[in-house]
Write the C-alpha cells for this entry.
Amino acid sequence: MTEKLKATLSKLPYSNKYVFLHNTLREFKKVVRSMLAELYPDWSKDKRAEEAKLLDFHALRYTFCTELIKNGVDIKTVQKIMGHADVKTTLGIYAQYVHGGMEDAIQNISW
C-alpha cells in the first residue's frame, strides 16, 4: 500500500476501528481510480475504470490477511483478527500463504 493510499484511507469514515461504512465505497473507488491514473498514466480511462471494479474493501481485507501471514503472524492470531469462527476458514482461504512450505521448512532445520 502506498503512503498516499494509506493516508487517504485513514480519512474515510468508519464505524469502528476496523470496519468502514458502506457509503465510503464510492470514495474508495475514486481514490483507486486516481491512484491508477498516477501509477498507469498510459492506461485509458476505460481501462482504469475496469481495473477499479476489481478492487473493493474485500480485496483490501484479503491483502491485509495475506500480508499478516507473509510477515510471520501465527495463523491463530490471523484467525482472531479476521474474525473467523474456525481456523479452518482462515486456512482454507489463505493456506497458500502460510510461510514457506516444505522447502523452507527443511532449510530451516538446524543440523
Observations:
- The two ends are 39 Å apart (CA to CA).
